[in-house]
């Protein structure tokens, strides 16, 4: 089908495909950040159940190194804060990519002369029905 499309349309389709890949990468990074955040918050919650005098160890590469309660708590709180910021950034990036995708899809539809233009519906990077009322 792409062989008989104007070069501008082919270029926009390639850009759409690139945005789709970007959206998938951002979604994977967001999922990983969410998982890491849940783990860090869970560990932080567990600290509440541990006596402050208990010997603790933290993983440093291949080793476990002894650490004290306050250091472990500070490290986990910092990790949670960093992951929350990372998650916010990824959510904003996800929104920008979705907007770019929708804009580009609209441009392509205009190029192809109207509604649908053979694009197969509203399945953007967020999937069917994503982001819209």
From TrEMBL:
Q: Which Pfam families match?
A: Prefoldin_2
Renumbered to this chain, region (Disordered) spans 19-38, 111-133
The residues forming a coiled coil are: none
Q: Where in the cell is it found?
A: Cytoplasm
Residue ranges, compositional bias (Polar residues): 19-35
Which GO CC annotations does the UniProt entry carry? Answer: cytoplasm; prefoldin complex
Q: Where is the composition biased (Gly residues)?
A: 113-133
Stored CDD domains: Prefoldin_beta_GimC (cd23162)
What is the protein name stated in its UniProt record? Prefoldin subunit beta
Tell me what gene encodes this.
pfdB
């Amino acid at each position: 089908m792409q062989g008989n499309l104007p070069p501008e349309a082919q270029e926009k389709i390639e850009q759409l495909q690139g945005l789709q890949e970007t959206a998938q990468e951002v979604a994977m990074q967001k999922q990983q950040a969410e998982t890491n955040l849940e783990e860090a918050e869970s560990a932080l919650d567990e600290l509440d159940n541990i006596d402050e005098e208990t010997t603790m160890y933290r993983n440093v590469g291949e080793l476990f190194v002894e650490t004290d309660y306050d250091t472990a708590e500070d490290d986990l709180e910092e990790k949670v804060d960093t992951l929350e910021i990372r998650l916010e950034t990824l959510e904003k990036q996800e929104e920008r990519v979705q907007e770019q995708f929708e804009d580009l899809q609209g441009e392509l539809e205009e190029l192809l002369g109207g509604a649908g233009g053979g694009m197969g519906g509203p399945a953007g990077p967020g999937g069917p029905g994503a982001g819209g009322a």
